[in-house]
Specification:
The complex is a heterodimer. Chain A has a domain of 160 residues: 3-Layer(aba) Sandwich (Rossmann fold), CATH 3.40.50.300. Helices cover 39% and strands 22% of the residues of chain A. Chain A contains 9 helices and 10 strands. In chain A, the strands form 2 sheets. Chain A has a 6-stranded mixed β-sheet. In chain A, strands 2-1-4-5 form a 4-stranded antiparallel β-sheet, with helices on one face. In chain A, helix 5 packs parallel to helix 6. Chain B is mainly alpha-helical. In chain B, helix 1 runs antiparallel to helix 9 and helix 6 runs antiparallel to helix 11. Classes of the chains: A alpha/beta, B mainly alpha. The interface between A and B is medium-sized, with 38 and 24 residues.
Chain lengths: 270, 315
């Protein structure tokens, strides 16, 4: 279970490049729930995910995961509880190392690493089994470098790596945005299967209204570093992609209103 | 013949330097200049201990430990104080110059009449082959000094052993995490590894190997000198690059072997060039020029090829 309480983050404070990326964001995620975050560019949805992952420390607020206060934990320490898949397919795997070695490292996520062999026959057999379940024909290529694979294959493997040891929380940061439609479909189906099978608590950022509506049990829409809508239960069940698009239009219209009003004020008073 | 054997032995000793440089430059992509200071540190510590009649084995280990400390310092400056990697190395290297002078107490420590690992190897040779000291051996028709032969064999065994150890290390959990740290730090951090810790550990190991190389070099050539480290990073890099060109593969085991062969080959080339009348003063200039060409040539050759033949994976 994840609790995000009053998280605030301002980048480059006091400079012309000041960005108030997160403003007093609070969310509570029950164990086993699957939350989708949507929002316009720069709305802070990826920033929120990074705040949870520990890429930076928040200015204010607390983060609690699985009963532990992780607000001040370093990124690598949080990795014990959190599995992640990045937007960029190149981010989640070490390209010059073999498929087997990459998975072997994931099989020890958050555990101490000593001088035991990274790979042995038992582990190799197990990872061949798990890779076979991806149905990508990669189980016979486990000694090939990951850099030789396609973006879709790499994302599928990263997903397998992030969920190898069942994480307390799975973070998916637009992990299909950089893929072609067919690979994106494949990865989304895999995402759905893995989350269902392991009942993983998941936070997923997406640009796709289709994904938002068809996956998960809750939708949060962010805007300007704040939670604008939080759709749960019956409201979530009724929602269609068009409804979400309409909400985006509302936001845009309000934004335009803001700028025209500002212009009018400027004309009249400055 | 003596010339070739001497060059090969020094090449093998400097292969440890090449392994260290391979670790920092290639595994981490970290341009670690500390090497220039740590190779001298290894030599200085060992030399001063040996001239105070400490067991040469222990003295060599102490030299290795000195390098470990130097590497850790560079790693700490880079990770904890966020100083640029190149600058961290330069700072430690500069500081080590004074440290080395303090360790030795003067700029040069001779070891000519001391018991070193080289003389111990000779004694072992005497015992096993039942010959007198300073005798010459007949190896396949060539006359070889016992001391030269014994050191060469000892270095071959030691470098082979350490190379194998390094290769095996890279296949452990810690070793794969180290390779991944250089390959994709974001990924290994997301898998729960402290990138800072691994960089400090890696630089410690790298400089330990380099200091060991300096320690053995001092024992072989019979002195430690405060200037002996100048330009050694470039030397090691040249060996690594020759090795990569020779093995033409990205497999770790082959690359380590390549670095060893590259080091020996480079040393042999230099010995032959010097024999042919190359001015020793030009040596570092030529070495730097060689590394420059080796760094630029691949990109230049790629540009010459028409774009159509470029591999898509490289785009």
């Amino acid at each position: 279970m994840l609790t995000i309480a009053n998280i605030t983050k301002t980048f480059n404070p006091g400079t012309p490049n000041e960005v108030r990326a997160l403003r007093d964001v609070s969310l509570r995620l029950e164990a086993g729930s699957f939350l989708l975050i949507i929002g316009t560019n720069g709305s802070g949805k990826s920033t929120l995910l990074n705040a949870v992952a520990g890429t930076f420390l928040p200015d204010l607020g607390t983060l609690t995961l699985a009963g532990q206060n992780i607000t001040r934990w370093a990124e690598h320490r949080r990795a014990k509880l959190i599995g992640r898949v990045f937007q960029n397919p190149f981010s989640g795997t070490a390209p010059n190392m073999s498929i087997a070695e990459n998975l072997a490292m994931a099989a020890r996520r958050g555990q101490p690493r000593g001088l035991g062999w990274a790979l042995n026959h038992k582990l190799k057999a197990e990872l061949r089994d798990r890779i076979r379940s991806l149905n990508m024909g990669l189980e016979n290529r486990i000694d090939n470098a990951i850099g030789s694979l396609s973006g879709g294959q790499r994302q599928a493997l990263t997903l397998l790596m992030a969920s190898w040891l069942k994480p307390e929380l799975l973070l998916l940061d637009e992990h299909t945005a950089a893929l072609d439609p067919k690979s994106a479909d494949q990865v989304i189906r895999l995402t759905h299967d893995i989350i269902q099978r392991d009942k993983l608590t998941t936070l997923m950022v997406t640009h796709s209204m289709q994904q938002a509506v068809h996956l998960g049990d809750r939708i949060v829409m962010m805007h300007r570093g704040q939670v604008l809508h939080d759709l749960q239960g019956a409201e979530r069940a009724r929602v269609r992609p068009e409804d979400l698009l309409k909400r985006f239009d509302d936001v845009r219209r309000r934004e335009q209103l803001d700028s025209t009003v500002a212009e009018m004020l400027q004309r009249n008073y400055v | 013949m003596t010339l070739l054997i001497g060059a090969t032995t020094i090449g093998l000793i400097l292969a440890l330097l090449a392994m260290g440089v391979y670790l920092s430059f290639r595994i981490f992509n970290f341009p670690d200049i500390t090497a220039d200071g740590s190779i001298t540190l290894g030599a200085a510590v060992t030399a001063i201990l040996i001239s105070n009649h400490v067991d040469p084995g222990l003295a060599t280990l102490a030299g290795f430990a000195g390098g470990v400390l130097a590497g850790m310092t560079t790693g700490l400056l880079h990770t904890k104080f966020k100083i640029n990697g190149l600058l961290s190395g330069i700072l430690v290297m500069t500081a080590l110059y004074s440290v080395n002078l303090h360790v030795m107490g003067k700029s040069n420590v001779p070891l000519l009449n001391e018991t070193t690992l080289a003389t111990q190897a000779e004694n072992l040779g005497m015992k096993w082959l039942h010959v007198a000291a300073d005798s010459d051996l007949n190896v396949f028709g060539w006359t070889v000094g016992l001391r030269d032969a014994a050191t060469l064999v000892a270095m071959l065994l030691l470098v082979g052993f350490l190379g194998m150890l390094l290769y095996l290390f890279f296949r452990t959990n810690l070793g794969t995490a180290m390779r991944a740290t250089g390959d994709n730090p974001q990924m290994i951090r997301a898998l729960g590894v402290s990138v800072d810790f691994i960089i400090i550990l890696g630089l410690a190991l790298s400089n330990g190997l380099i200091a060991l190389s300096g320690s053995l070099l001092a024992q072989y050539q019979g002195f430690a000198d405060v200037q002996m480290g100048i330009g050694m990073v470039v030397w090691g890099l040249a060996s690594v690059i020759i090795g990569e060109a020779l093995v033409g593969s990205s497999r770790i085991g082959l690359l380590i072997t390549g670095a060893v062969i590259g080091s020996v080959l480079f040393r042999l080339l230099v010995a032959i060039a010097l024999r042919w009348g190359l001015n020793p003063n030009d040596l570092k200039l030529i070495t730097a020029g060689f590394v420059f060409v080796a760094l630029v040539a691949p990109a230049f050759l790629r540009k010459l090829k028409p774009a159509a033949t470029a591999k898509p994976s490289e785009a």
